[in-house]
């Protein structure tokens, strides 16, 4: 058994996602468990170098997590052949430029979603990676949540019969920052900084819907900036230029209708921050982030509309929990392990920059639908023929 260290440049690691999900819960956790085992018995140990602007923050992170390497020079990190992977969880608008550089330096690419703030750039990155022949991947963490894995199991088992519709409720109240600090960064509420719930969440909804229920074929969306003014991290008021709620309907392959509400301006009265309700001819399911419950055709009650009497049916109690039947690890960590195996042992990894571009495409068309107040069909995306530096036949 050989042990191989693999150098990973981690950029944006002082941020919310970078620190918590990618560094602590993924890379540090993988190191603490002794690495990732490959099919041939070899083990890979990720060896991160943390990159950013703030020396003190980087140093503190490195010390706290028993690491050694940090740098304020991305170029130096890219020039070092020991670093095989470039990872990016910077704010969205900064990502494309850094990834272009990393592709040019021959690094394998893994990054947060959205891969860029517009489709043209997202596709360009996918094309550049393809032409350079490097491995690439995008975070699609929701696919690895226990609740969604249980839903996928139900879909694969044929439990639903024909799937008719999907309703998704996502959101919670994000404080305005005046009398309680906001729990999301202020750039999320400024369009010019890559913010907006449509750009943020449709990147998730695309892969969730595509992977669980069927490809998204068309979109109708209305967005809204419900809270026009917020207070930022430095206690300064600012004008919100980006949408903080989106009310969308998607048509999926096979005629499935998905209604999806995304909001940072709603108070939660449901079982989880994301709830997915699926109705099929043979059964229905309701999934949260971790749990999932079902009601089969044979155990479906028969309500009769009668507001003159108190409701006689305990609807919430008439569902059955789907058992876990396995241990569920952190979704970000699972995907990191799969990417590391992809890089080191050529294991499959279907969540590529092209898949990421599909997310950006859905956001862009959602915004267009809102602006033009109409349904929009979603063109198929594909990469062009290899021809260095140029995108040929990017969409058809
Ligand atoms: N997968 C998910 O569920 C999920 C959830 C939230 C955010 N995200 C995505 O992750 C990314 C980061 O989001 P976040 O909430 O962690 O944001 P954040 O603001 O907390 O972190 C942003 C990072 O970018 C760095 N950065 C910002 N401006 C910079 C500059 N001028 N120069 C150098 N570095 C700079 C910051 O130092 C920080 O490390 C975004 O693209 C966001 O869309 C993904």
Automatic annotation (TrEMBL):
One of its GO terms (molecular function) is nucleotide binding. Residues 149-285 form the GFO/IDH/MocA-like oxidoreductase domain. Pfam families: GFO_IDH_MocA (PF01408), GFO_IDH_MocA_C3 (PF22725). Residues 50-133 form the Gfo/Idh/MocA-like oxidoreductase N-terminal domain. Signal peptide: none annotated. PANTHER family: NAD(P)-BINDING ROSSMANN-FOLD SUPERFAMILY PROTEIN-RELATED, OXIDOREDUCTASE. This is Oxidoreductase. It comes from Peribacillus deserti.
């Amino acid at each position: 058994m050989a042990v191989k260290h693999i150098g990973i440049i981690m950029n944006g690691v002082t941020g919310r996602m970078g620190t918590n999900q990618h560094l602590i819960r993924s890379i540090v956790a993988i190191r603490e468990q002794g690495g990732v085992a490959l099919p041939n018995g070899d083990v890979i140990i990720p060896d991160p170098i943390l990159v950013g602007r703030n020396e003190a923050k980087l140093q503190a992170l490195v010390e706290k997590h028993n690491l050694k390497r940090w740098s304020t020079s991305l170029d130096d990190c890219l020039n070092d052949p020991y670093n095989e992977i470039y990872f990016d969880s910077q704010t969205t608008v900064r990502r494309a430029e850094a990834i272009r550089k990393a592709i040019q330096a021959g690094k394998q690419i893994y990054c947060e979603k959205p891969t860029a703030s517009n489709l043209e750039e997202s596709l360009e990155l996918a094309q550049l990676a393809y032409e350079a022949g490097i491995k690439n991947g995008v975070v699609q963490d929701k696919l690895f949540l226990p609740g969604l894995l249980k839903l996928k199991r139900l879909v694969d088992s044929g439990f639903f019969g024909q799937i008719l519709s999907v309703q998704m409720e996502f959101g919670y109240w994000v404080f305005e920052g005046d009398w309680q600090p906001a729990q999301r960064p202020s750039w999320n509420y400024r369009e010019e900084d890559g913010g907006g719930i449509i750009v943020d969440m449709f990147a998730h909804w695309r892969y969730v819907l595509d992977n669980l229920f069927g490809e998204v074929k068309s979109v109708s969306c209305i967005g809204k900036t419900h809270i026009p003014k917020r207070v930022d991290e430095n206690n300064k008021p600012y004008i919100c230029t980006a949408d903080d709620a989106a009310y969308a309907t998607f048509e999926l392959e096979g005629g499935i209708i998905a209604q999806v509400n995304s909001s940072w301006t709603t108070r939660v009265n449901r079982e989880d921050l994301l709830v997915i309700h699926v109705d099929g001819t043979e059964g229905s399911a309701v999934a949260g982030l971790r749990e999932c419950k079902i009601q089969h055709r044979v155990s479906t009650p028969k309500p009769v509309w009668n507001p003159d009497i108190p409701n006689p049916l305990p609807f919430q109690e008439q569902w059955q929990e789907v058992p876990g039947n396995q241990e569920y690890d952190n979704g970000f960590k699972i995907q990191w392990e799969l990417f590391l195996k992809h890089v080191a042992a050529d294991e499959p990894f279907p969540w590529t920059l092209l898949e990421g571009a599909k997310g950006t495409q859905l956001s862009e068309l959602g915004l267009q639908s809102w602006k033009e107040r109409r349904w929009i069909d979603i063109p198929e995306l594909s990469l062009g023929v290899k021809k260095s530096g140029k995108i040929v036949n990017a969409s058809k």
